[in-house]
Amino acid sequence: MNSLLRPPLPGPSLLARRRVSPSPAGERVGLAAVVVVGGRRRCRRGLAVVAASAAPSWMEEAGLELLEEGVRRNPSVSDSYRPVGLPRPNATVLEAQARVCTGPGQTRPLGEEQAMRVLDTILRSAMGELKEEPVSSAQLGYEEVQCVLKDILPIGSSSGSTVVSEALLAAFLIGQRMNRETDRELKAYCLAFDDELGPPPIADVKSLTHYGEPYDGNTRFFRSTLFVAAVRACYGESCLLHGVEWMPPKGGITEGQMLKFMGANIHLSPTQAKTLLEDENAGFAFLNLQEACPPLYSIISLREHIKKRPPLATSEKVQQFVRARGRESMIAGFYHEGYEDPLLMLMRRRTVHAGLVVKGEEGALSMTTKERSAHASKGLPVNHCSGFRTPNNINSSEADGIPRESFRVIVNAQELGFESTETPRTDRSVLKNLELGLAALGGQKGAAYDRIVLNAAMADHLLGCSGAEDINTALDRAREAIDSGKALRRLMSYIKISHKVT
Fold first, then answer.
1. ∠ at Cα 315 (175, 257), nearest 5°?
2. Quick one: which H or E segment has residue 288?
3. Which DSSP symbol is given to 138?
4. Residue 35's pLDDT is what?
5. How many CA atoms within 13 Å lie on the side-chain side of 30?
């Protein structure tokens, strides 16, 4: 919908890159920092947080010590955040599940040799021969599920062991994925755990955006949403991020990992998240599924053992763990065709004022500034967006009492004045992702900076946020939040405040 991006835009920003004054010896914080650990001086990599606008005086006040402690306490690679106590699935059976549990149009049948190897693995596991890598209950096949059903039916049976419930639930989730869940089934998944902890708290904010990033994170490219939230909070667009520290099948970088690495408290209750949303020095919050919805968090291990993303991976993006007195919006990422309309349907059922689904990089929310190749694969391109919002005219749908207008658009960053740049690769490195994001919030121009600006401004514009009707104005507002140092201060403040909320 080209009208969303009018009028024509000028060239790239004329904002000059700031000069960075060298820090005095002993005060420098960069990629090589000296730390005292156990009475000895050690040289190690630190976070590149002193960028263009970062002054040592306020950086220390804003929580630099927490950052330094976070680096020592937490690992820097996303794989390391996998909970230690989770038993690993059997690799042979998992590989087979990856082939046959993809969906009706993508399933790849097993060859005879592989099928026999899988059956032999299951048999040896049942006989107790595979001590180090047994086949788990969640990985068992058709015959085992038949036995489970006989054990638990009819209703009223005394059977209720963990083994039975895991096997049955795994079979159910796998079957749902293979048969492609219906809209009614997705609604059930979405609403099943609403009010699990009671009615959601209501934040006294004028605008709140719920961010639905894929819970299993990024494994290749820069993940920008945490930094986008800090930018948008600077001008009153409160943002609620939700997810987990680590999630299969990708086990990639998440907002939970980044915040934990920096020393923030990532175990907030919804009420505590509400407090942070209302705080003038924060304005955004991250909610861990472990606190927000314990039943869903409890099946992380099961999700690893069924290999493919279950239907829950779609519906969990569209949650409202906190509500707002003002305007509410939702954003969710997707990759596979066929999930765009169901996500928007679920958002409408949440009765939000605006909804946006984005085909970002890796199926996440981050739009790219990289120009699309002429040889790009078929299907919806990266930067494809569709959604609905409160209209400025009367030609709109009012099925649930909220008037809305729909839109579809492919965001072309070059038409918006951005130079085409390759997306920064992080390759599961939490530290690398933080270095890129923090340097960008400090004013360092480049690919990460451009992506944060683009994603903040386009969210404002497409969701119909106040003051973002003109895309040029929205872009300038996002840049000002960064170049003034406000966004970086917000993030540093959040780290400290997250430990003080009650």
1. 110
2. strand 284-288
3. G
4. 31
5. 11
pLDDT in tens, 201-211: 999 999 999 99
Is it true that the peptide bond before 270 is cis, omega within 30 degrees of 0?
no
448 and 425 in contact (C-beta within 8 Å)?
A: no
Is it the case that residue 427 has pLDDT exceeding 80? yes
Q: What is the pTM of this model?
A: 0.72
Residue 481's pLDDT band (cuts 50, 70, 90): very high
Model confidence at 296, pLDDT cuts 50, 70, 90, reads: confident
Closest C-alpha to 233, from 162, 284, 169, 288:
284
Its CATH class, for the domain covering 202-497, is alpha beta
Interior CA angle at 339 toward 166 and 300, to 5°? 25
The residue assigned the tokens 């299993």 is 216
% residues pLDDT > 90 (the chain) = 48
CA distance 323 to 487: 24
- Give DSSP secondary structure letters for 292-334: H-HHHHTTHHHHHHT-SPPTHHHHTTS--SSEESSEEEEEEE-
The distance from CA 477 to its chain's CA centroid, rounded to whole angstroms, is 24
Where helices occur in 10-86 by DSSP H, the ranges are 56-61, 64-73
Look up residue 423 and give its two tokens.
């997306």
Q: Which amino acid is at 143?
A: E
Q: How far is CA 29 from CA 33, 53, 55, 404, 429, in A?
A: 6, 13, 10, 49, 20
Query: Among 318, 365, 346, 335, which residue's Cα sits nearest to residue 462?
Result: 365
Q: What angle do CA 126, 130, 133 make, to 5 degrees?
A: 110
* Amino acid, res. 83: P
List the domain boundaries for the chain.
Answer: 91-191, 202-497
